[in-house]
Amino acid sequence: MWIILGFLFSFQLHALESFERLNGVKILRVLDKNIIMVNRGLEDGILLNDHAKLSQEGEGYSARAICIKARGDNSYWKLYRIPYSETISLDLTYSIVGMADKEIPGRVASLRDEVLEINDPAENKKNPESKTDPFSVKRDLPEKLTERDLIETVGPDKRKLFMEKALNQDQMRRDLQDYQVSVFASPFTRQSINEGESYRYGARAGNVASKYRLMGQFEQQQTKLKDPLTKEEVSTRSTSGQAQFVIHRLNNDVSSLSLINYNSNRFSRLATPKSHWQAGPIGFTWHMFENRTWEYFDLSYIPLYDIRTTDVLDASGSQSEDKTSGLRHGFRLAVKTRINERVAFENLLWVRPYQDLASWRIEGDNLNLSNDLKLIFNLTGNLFFDYNFVYQYDTLWKKLSDLPSTNTINSLNLRYDFDI
User: Fold this and answer.
1) Burial level of 146, CB count in 10 A (0-12/13-18/19+)?
2) pLDDT in tens, 174-223
3) Which of 39, 120, 161, 172 shows the greatest Cβ crowding within 10 Å of its Cβ?
């Protein structure tokens, strides 16, 4: 099994990702059969069979297209949906936004298996050999490298160039302009602790960008459960939130990760936790594998400063607070793959062992573990139906509040995505 997985992971493609945006796109030529040539190509992450939406700032959504040929600095696209033909012009500037393959209508999906002939007289006249060797490049490497050349390649200028590339303020400003928002609600949620039935709702927002990605999420849950002491039914509320910032692709395999987590949860009279903050200024994500079916297969590590306040009930029945702070080593395994055009599978595993800052001892049983498995069904357009199964393991529930150390949550969610 591992040999097969290793074989699959050895093939990596870096195509235009879903929701990745390329700005400043110009149409260079309009050809027969609704084929256009644009000034973006392999150097910009565009590959053959990429699926994208073309938009224009003044006119808005212009067309959907599939890439049928890509070269270093340009590419050809087959437009299969053009709601406003007057917005296709050589005089306008466009944005290309990557779209998932599942959004391709069945009637045009066969385009990806065809070899379309591109009749481009201007290109053929300019380069008669382009049909036989479209990737021909001229030799521009030096005949001989000197010691000085090697020093300059790895010296301060190279490091400065890397920092400028990683922290490009102009690109950051552009990347933080456009956002996609998801609103969701769960008419039914059931958890194993105290036989709780919940109503869950919230929102998530993230920018649509290729480099600097900012995401925020807020969720609230109303719960009806049985009090473990009195057996009476009570209503409680839990709240969680997250802010995350990513610099995508510092190199081909690694991205940065910064995040802040917050959650509070009240079981009956006890808040476990009353408040729980986890802050990670900097961590890293290793992109182990991705292709057109596997949207991502990532492993992340980030050190988290952990502050937790919990209500504690002693033997006499009196209630007090327990406050702890320390370091957690956050390991995250994130996987998302498509089963077919409308169904996708997503799994997010967090393992966060606790380390005491005074003794530097790592508590092997205090893992703050959670695994969120999700099946995603695209009902129509931007409307989705999700099934979530969440497994949680927290020894502090048992230690501080005499609750089970494990909890499972089953929920059905309706979600709607839109752009702002």
Assistant:
1) exposed
2) 778 878 899 999 888 887 876 666 788 999 999 877 688 899 999 988 87
3) 120
Torsion over CA of 357, 358, 361 and 362, rounded to 10 degrees? Answer: -20
Q: What is the pLDDT of residue 47?
A: 87
pLDDT over 60 (residue 321): yes
* Contacts within 8 Å (CB) and 24+ apart, 287-291: 287/249, 287/252, 287/253, 287/254, 287/255, 288/9, 289/8, 289/9, 289/12, 290/12, 290/13, 290/14, 291/11, 291/12, 291/13
- CA–CA gap between residue 217 and residue 177 (Å, rounded): 18
Q: What is the mean pLDDT of residues 266-292?
A: 87
> Does the predicted model carry a pTM greater than 0.70?
no
Q: What is the DSSP string of 301-362?
A: EEEEEEEEEEEEE-TTS-EEEEEEEEEEEEEEEEEEEESSSSEEEEEEEEE--EE-TTT--E
What domains are there in the chain, each with its CATH number?
10-126 (2.40.10.340), 175-419 (2.40.128.130)
